[in-house]
User: Fold this.
Amino acid sequence: MKREVKVTSDGSKTLYINDLNENYHSHHGAMQEAQHVFIKNGLKLKYDSEINILELGFGTGLNVLVTIDEFLKNDKNHVVQYFTIEKYPVNESEVKELGYDSFFDEPKMNEYYQKLHQCAWNVKHEILPNFFFTKYQCDFFELKNLDLPPIDLVYYDCFGARVQPDLWEKPLFEMVADKMEQGGLLTTYASKGSVRRILQELDFKVEKKDGPPGKREMINAVLMR
Assistant:
């Protein structure tokens, strides 16, 4: 799968897949999108003394970095367990060229960024004190076989339905819901009516929120069962 690095409108970079004509992040701003969808409308709404986060999928690692950044701004005695799935990992040269660590004030962010990509798959790692990270190299549909604690917060960041429609249909959302705690929050950049209806069928309370730059709406969904 051929990828190239592209600069988005906020100066941060993303990967572009030629064969799919698809970016990993919004071309309107990769950093802005991650912070708006997954921090402002995700982590900040669910932050607690202990939180279990599930991300689909790991990709460039940007969503983990913005989560670490927010973790460092809060009580570091809190415990974060972060689980993420990725079938096609990015390579070392791509990680270096993306250079996300330069967008954060934390001097050790480059160390954390490298560790996220270099650490072994399917093994729990303490990336920094009280921030635990496990990445699984597998297909999203193998989620049902993963042994996870009840998930409080889901970052649903799959490629768009135009290129991977099966990732936005009921079977995968059902697997995700089965891994979630009652009252858990799913946040995603998507806002399709079909996605809203599927989530409602699965006992989520769905709320439309203002989207990140370049997108009118996004979805927050709280699991009620």
